[in-house]
Amino acid sequence: MNEKTPVEELVFNVLAELERLNYSYNSICGYRAFYKRVVAFATEKKEKYYSEELGSEFLKVKYDCTINYYVEAMPKFLRGPIRRIRVLGDYQLHGVIIRRIFKKPGYVKPSQFEKELVAYEKECAENEYSKRGLRTRMQRLYFFIHYLDARGIQNVNEITGETISDYVKTIFAHHEKSMASILTTLRVFLRFLFLNQNTQEDLSLKVPKQKKYYYPPIPSVWKQEDVVSMLENIDRGNPTGKRDYAILLLVARLGIRAGDIKSLKLTDLDWENKTIVLKQNKTKRMVSYPILNDIGWALIDYLKEARPVSDSPFVFLRMNAPYEAFGRDANLHNIITKHTRKAGITVSKEKRHGLHSLRHTLASSLLEQGTPLPVISEVLGHINSRSTAVYLQTDIKSLRKCALDPEEVFKNDSR
User: Fold this and answer.
1) Counts of helices then strands in the chain (DSSP H, E)
2) Which CATH number is 115-206's, of 2.60.40, 1.10.10, 1.10.150, 1.10.443?
3) Which domain of life does the UniProt lineage start with (predicted)?
4) How far apart are CA 163 and CA 94, in angstroms?
5) Nearest-CA neighbor of 79 among 71, 88, 69, 89?
6) How far apart are CA 228 and CA 230, in angstroms?
7) Do residues 374 and 367 lie in contact, with contact meaning Cβ atoms separated by under 8 Å?
8) Cα 209 to the center of its chain, rounded Å
9) Residue 275 has what DSSP assignment?
10) What is the rounded CA–CA span in Å between residue 251 and residue 357?
11) How many Cβ atoms are within 10 Å of 409's Cβ, its own excluded?
């Protein structure tokens, strides 16, 4: 749908589509008022048809918006206007309103694709994809399914190479890593349809491939004094502090992922052999971690003095009733953020100081000590050393300024 439509007609069609998609009355009123200004602006400029240039100029004149919103982060106060302008452009190009997000309560699968989606989801579960990985995979796929539904496609056999090409145009503004994930998800799903005889043609061959090499970003690492400051400023005189201290030690000392910490059970703690044995959520591999002295005392302090009385099998619980394990979507980011702020640590916008950054710091420290990459991969739970090799990109001279010596930094307290 590349033919240009007069601005007034385009706006009328978009508002009608918003109503069909059951947008709220208030949302539609907001869109209508906004588009009246767009039409008036086009009339003033003597532009009969809508164009991306017209939309960008409108944002620049009316909102002082000069960013390229397809490749740059959008300021919060500009997200509404930019979204409405993009809706006009999307509808003119594709004849559909592209969904940018799906609400968490659940996606209602279009009836014409429900059978295939359920079968694909079942196969992914049988292949033991992690719950989080499967949820992310299906989330990406739903955008494509919504696009098909909006285009009026009623059967998977109606999907063509042109349809796929048109859809790919809608995601070109994503970060290249996000695009790679979306295209991979689409390719795997279309291959599944062909192998299960849902489609007569292997449409996965129609999905374009990115001519990009694997260039992961250089990980963020902590300065030694910042990690020490954060840990020392945790108030271990209260139950929440005891819990948070134990969690942060497990990440910083052993590199355990947040998902594995959430799913850690009391039965995973082998006190006799001083080990933690668990099945990693991401890799599905059984791994064993040593219960180092400082970690052991932190766990004992939390379990004996702070953990709420509960029948839950999980080690770490919420500190407010009902006393349950952390939620499925909890990433524990608030824990490290809270204690970073309390310690007065300033985090630059270029750095990521979430829980995962403590894993990066541990890896960098081990690398500085001459630990081989395969050993670091084993510690971090990487399936192969390629994920770990990214730490080689960090300048060793600069690394010495921020690397941590685990044995020196995290000494056992005076117990």
Assistant:
1) 18, 3
2) 1.10.150
3) Bacteria
4) 10
5) 69
6) 6
7) no
8) 22
9) E
10) 9
11) 17
- Residues 248, 336: Cα–Cα separation, whole Å: 8
Please give the Cα distance from 157 to 203 (Å, whole number): 10
CA proximity to 129, closest of 284, 280, 277: 284
Place of tokens 């490749």: 71
Q: Could you report the per-residue pLDDT of 228-271, keeping only the tens digit for each?
A: 788 888 999 999 999 999 998 888 778 788 888 889 999 999 99
* Separation of alpha carbons 21 and 100, rounded Å: 14
Mean pLDDT of the chain: 79
Alpha helices, DSSP H, located in 95-175: 114-126, 131-150, 161-169
Partners of 317 in beta bridges: 325
- CA 228 to chain CA centroid, Å, is 28
Architecture of domain 224-409: Orthogonal Bundle (1.10)
Helix orientation angle between 7-20 and 25-44, rounded to the nearest 10 degrees: 170
Q: Residue 353 has what DSSP assignment? A: -
Answer yes or no: are the C-beta atoms of 381 and 285 closer than 8 Å: yes
Q: Between vectors from CA 33 to CA 31 and to CA 38, what angle results, nearest 5°?
A: 90
Element (H, E) at 303: helix 293-305
Helix (H, G, I), strand (E, B) or coil at 307: coil
Q: Mutual orientation of helices 333-342 and 224-232 as an angle, nearest 10°?
A: 90
Output 76 or 296, whichever has higher pLDDT: 296
Which residues, in sequence order, are bridge partners of residue 287?
Answer: 278
Contacts of 42 (CB under 8 A, 6+ apart): 7, 48, 50, 54
Report how far residue 93's alpha carbon sits from residue 83's, in angstroms, rounded to the nearest whole number.
Answer: 15
| Helix residue ranges per DSSP H, 24-66 | 25-44, 52-63
pTM passes above 0.70:
no
**Mean per-residue pLDDT for 341-369?**
63
Residue 321 has φ and ψ, to the nearest 5°, of -65, 145
